[in-house]
Structure of Contactin associated protein like 2b:
Amino acid sequence: EKCDEVLATPLPYSAFSASSVVSSDYGAGYAKLNRRGGAGGWVPLNSDRYQWLQIDLKARKQITAIATQGRYSSSDWTKQYRFLYSDTGSNWRAYCQDGNIWTFAANRNSDRSVRHDLQYSIVARFLRFIPMDWSEEGRIGLRVEVYGCSYWSDVISFDGQGVISYRFRAKKMKILKDLISLKFKTTKGDGVLLHGEGQQGDYLTLELKRAKLLLQINLGSNQYGSILGHTAVSSGSLLDDDHWHSVVIERYRRNVNFTLDQHTQSFRTNGEFDHLDLDYEISFGGIVSSSKPSSAGGDHFVGCMEEIFYNGNNITNLVRRKKTDTSSFRNLTFSCAESRTFPVFFNATSFLLLTGRTDFDTMSVSLMFRTWNPNGLLLFTPLLYGGVEVSLTEGKVTVHIYVTQKQNTRVDISSGSGLNDGQWHSVHLLALESFAMLTINGDETSSVRATIPIQIHTGGSYYFGGKNKMDQLPGFRSFQGCMQLIHVDDQLVDLQAVEQGAPGTFENIGLNMCAIIDRCVPNHCEHGGRCSQTWDTFSCACEGTGYTGATCHTPVHEQSCEAYKHLGKTSDMYWIDPDGSGPLEPFKVNCNMTEEKVWTTVANDLLAQSPPNSTWISSVLSSLLLQLNTITSSAEHCEQHVAYGCRMSRLLNTPEGSPYTWWVGRGNEKHFYWGGSGPGVQKCACGIERNCTDPKYFCNCDADQRQEDSGVLMYKDHLPVSHMVVGDTSRPGSEAKLTVGPLRCQGDRDYWNTASFNTPASYLHFPTFQGETSADISFYFKTSSTYGVFLENLGSSDFIRLELKSPTAVSFSFDVGNGPVELTVRSPTPLNNDKWHKVEAERNIKEAVLQLDRRYREVRLAPPQGHTRLQLYSQLFVGAASGQRGFLGCVRSLKMNGVTLDLEERARVTPGVKPGCSGHCSSYGVHCQNGGKCVEKYNGYSCDCSLTAFDGPFCTEGKSGLLGPLTTEANLTQEELTFSFSTSNAPSVLVYISSRTQDYLAVVLRHNGTLQIRYNLGGLREPFTISQDTRNMANGQPHNVNISRQDRIIQLQVRPIDPVIIEKYNTPGFVGCLSRVQFNRVAPLKAALRSGISSTASVQGVLVESNCGASPLTIPPMSAAYDPCGTCCVFLFLFSFTMACCRSHVTSVFSAGVIAVVIFIVLCTLVFLVRHMFRHKGSYHTNEAKGAESADCADAAIIVNDPAFSETIDESKKEWFI
């Protein structure tokens, strides 16, 4: 039934009261909605925040809504107010919403009423409206109405002795499903609310511990103790506030919902059992003495309970009808005693001034306080000559006593620690003529005493929580929190009398209420972040969680190895977080990026082992199963190797028997096929390939011989292997050895999940986005359009939207009920450049963040008080918004709160939207280095390194090693040769290129380590020589060489490389290291070292691949030489080319014979002149030995050229043939 009855209007005039009234015509009884009696409403004597209007509903009622109105036809109305409620007319409780004392928006004129439906219903008899803001034109004016319905329940008072025992009909109960609910109120922070247990160790306990609610449940542990069923969950805080709190426990098997005051925690119990086995009874209010093994001690509950229900049984009603055992109660009552405490609530501008004895030689003050702030003034009292100050300093109580009579004297004492924990703590300070004593929490054994050689003369004034503004000094910190049971001169102060005008003064305090709020309950710090708080706010410590941000919501790690690859990372171990901000923790994997597609490898916990009889073996930690499932779900391919070694231990019991061994995969499904086979086929690999040792069986081990069955499981929807069950190991002589390899997956479909929006009206729709208190959105976009909406989701007034506002700006806008908020991030370069850009947006109860391309960022703090819940109702639209132009372009990898939306699946069935997007190379082509070519693919790109000397996914891995001859044919007018080398041996031949004739090209290190280039291209009697400067290149450090020729111009470039690279790899070269060799488009080292690829490279001796090569560098020219040959080339390697190099073959034609003879004579003359010039002039000259001309071949010519090479022939052989 709807709970919306009018409750205030039918009440008599006497049910209304107020702090004050202007006159009788403005009395509180006239404050009824839409009534014109008296002067038309209530108006207090003064318009300030100490005024209140109170209603006595005559009985406890359930309240669901409230409404206000200004005084009839006047300038008096209330613009804002707070709402308090109570059962007894004391110990008021402020209505809170979204973690704050809520301030309701009220009226802007005198006649229109404003109604507010409460976010949660309350139960109370007394209500108070406290105006916080009012009309500037007049005064406070108020008429009100309250909506709700009747409420009745049996209340039971617990005195700390009595326990209610509810006996079951059977001696033992095996319970699969539980539904338990109750309400309680107390001033004690400890006490058992309910308890039940069984002989087998099962138990269920709900108790208060330090004013927090603790639920402990155990559905059973196994006999070996390896499976522990104990589960404990805590909820709430400050529950000793003497207000009603509601608890509901719902359990089905191991799934539990634990609700305290509208906040629900859902969890699964530990262990693997589903039933709760209880014996005889369940008790409320304490634990009945028992000899059961799991019985535990605990204080009995002191306070009140109502509406106690246990699995459909109304326990409070059974107690009233005397159907349960209540013999332990001394005096069973069905009413709740009124609280005797009178708390006072302080904020940053509050103080309470009380009076005491004057000029007395003894000072005794005590009080109880609770706060979250580590610092604040508790008490200040001036002495006739000096003063006493009691403060909270970094969580401990400190006392400063100082006297200014004759000479300045000061005494400091302190005690306690961590007293800003929100709990009630007591302080007692006693100062006499000769000593002072400070006692915390009534523990006199740990009281701190100090001798004071001064005379105490009390001043008679005691300031609690603060001072007058005129008396405050710079750096002064007021107390924020609650106090109660204040004693001055050993007398309890009657604060209610102070409120009614007794001696004393106060400012900005809340009397008869404690509105302290625990901002860490519920804990908004996600993923295990540690919450700490002050009076106004909370903060989260995220260190070690793998997350960051104001609430530890944003993941630190990338979602996959694929994402790391496209950030330029190389193969290594990485932390990944597949579900982003979702509940799953990050974990470490191995990322292998040496192939076109990245391999992700996750090691398991099952090494090769011989299991005992009928064993259930876990291959992975249960905590990792969900993470591994996310990897297999998004991967393109997964595999896992399994092996079963056996001797008289059958595996699948083929061909027709029931399997003795099976494995459990994803979703806890059993599978009866083995590696190398597939789903639905009860066979091993040999059964598929028909090569089992005994053809009668489909597995080698089924033949009862010493064999092995191994293979790869490749149906990824069944992976990973979580458990193995081995059965046939109980026969005499049976042996089995089980091995489960790591899970290996390739690709990440979520990372490349893309949709293309081709028309402004095209969009995709998804279910409503659920992100009430915490929401994050991330995606990539690419467009050539100037603006468009990426996504939008609407509520009744709330909304969330991300859009491209201009060619250089992205905006994130939302409204959670406090008015629209918009964050805008601008880029210095255009965003509509048809390249991928990343957008990340997050909103939580503390802040909103928008980030673009991981660099540009804007943060907007949430208001200190206001709505925090984002409530959406419409579908989520991607690519368009209501009434606005849609997005034209591509959206990729859209994640919302850690869940990747499948854009491609929706795009396949949506007009105007297509799956995939072309043009990845425009954004990622820069990753293809060293001349690699970017190749477009449907779901990504790859780098083609075939025309470079490099390899790897980004053409950055240079091949290094030593090899023999490689043959190619060329007739060149230009060429380019690059390579890197390092060596400590000289002289030596680095590169040698020869032809079938006497032409050759060589790069050598001479005996002094200098670099020299020699070549003979025909037409010259002596080879042309270029000598590099006098630097020693055989210094063990890496060097890059780049030689290029265009017609007659030769450029030589040599540059040393950072030696740290060589030291890092510590390569033990033969005599040196050669890497990244490329002659035009020929990469001989790469061709020789690539396995499985045919090439013209031949290897002499043993060729070993190494990582000794240096990083690729861009090298400016260092020297150039003018080539007199005019048609030839240069240089280097440890292999030989067979080439026809730059030769002009003139075909004699009889009809042109005369012309040919003339040309020949001219050419010879030019060659002679040029040769003569270069022998005597220029930067470079030849020093060829005379024997070079008579050498038998080009190889011999280079050797006989320099005497130093007489010693290098054997060394060269070592280099060439290792």
